[in-house]
């Protein structure tokens, strides 16, 4: 993971207090296809939100998105595609993780977990877009 990957967190909305930052070399959240993840945990109004970040070339990120969608289909995980500020993202409803958001952003992929909402996802997308 390159140092500049951490600077992508600076572009996220200033919505809460950073609690911790961690790195997962492989099998993030038990998924064999996602590796080299930086996860930052936030406290937003007393609730925890985790933002996972993977960076890479756009084709690698597109491949990860395709792997997630294939996993969702195979596992029966419900998801809906949405858009905000002209940028697409996925709202995922998972029986284990609860509702969360998968946000492809060119050469980065973000997962937003925990106490999440459409409003928070839209804020993240808007900040990434700018």
Protein architecture, described:
There is one protein chain. The chain has one domain: TM1622-like (Protein Transport Mog1p, Chain A). 28% of the residues lie in helices and 42% in strands. It has 3 helices and 7 strands. The protein has a 7-stranded antiparallel beta sheet with strand order 1-2-3-7-6-5-4, with helices on both faces. The longest helix has 18 residues.
Quick summary of this structure?
The protein has about 130 residues and is of the alpha+beta class. The chain has helices at about 5-10, 60-75, 120-130; strands spanning about 15-25, 35-45, 45-55, 80-85, 85-95, 100-105, 110-115.
Write the layout of secondary structure elements.
Blueprint: H1 4-10, E1 17-24, E2 37-44, E3 47-55, H2 58-75, E4 78-84, E5 87-94, E6 98-104, E7 108-114, H3 118-129
Antiparallel strand pairs: 1-2, 2-3, 3-7, 4-5, 5-6, 6-7
